Amino acid sequence: MTRAQQTISLALLVTSVLPSNFPISFPFPLYEAYVGINTSQVYLAFAFHLVPLNAKIQEDIIPVLPLWTLVSFGSYLLFKLGWGVITFNDVPQAYKELMADIEVARKDLKANGIDVD
Q: In whole angstroms, what is the distance from residue 45 CA to residue 36 CA?
């Protein structure tokens, strides 16, 4: 093991701040931080060849994994946004409240002499 690998191994050991028996009953953001720390540790272990893998995987897949993850997360968020837009009219009570607010605003603007039609 080279000096650089020893340093990375020590850094991975130090960054594992939460115990391995981390209970899921903790608040959600804390659990997300725990999952993020472990995910980055696993990626670093693969990226710095601390875990032996097939050469094809090590050279072709591991280097583009962060970009692939970022693109996948962006696609997921775009899907959630699109789904929210598509199902926006599926809330009849909110639609009625919004239309009532629009009517109140129109009456208020007409009372001030502003034409909104």
A: 14
Contact 16, 35 (CB under 8 A): no
Please write the tens of the pLDDT for every residue from 42-55: 888 888 888 888 88
* The token pair that represents 85 in the structure block: 């837009």
Q: Are 100 and 84 in contact (CB under 8 A)?
A: no
Contact 53, 31 (CB under 8 A): no
Residue 6 CA to chain centroid, in angstroms? Answer: 31
Terminal-to-terminal C-alpha distance of the chain: 76
49-78 residue pLDDT tens: 888 888 898 899 989 999 998 999 999 999
Q: Is the pTM of this model over 0.85?
A: no
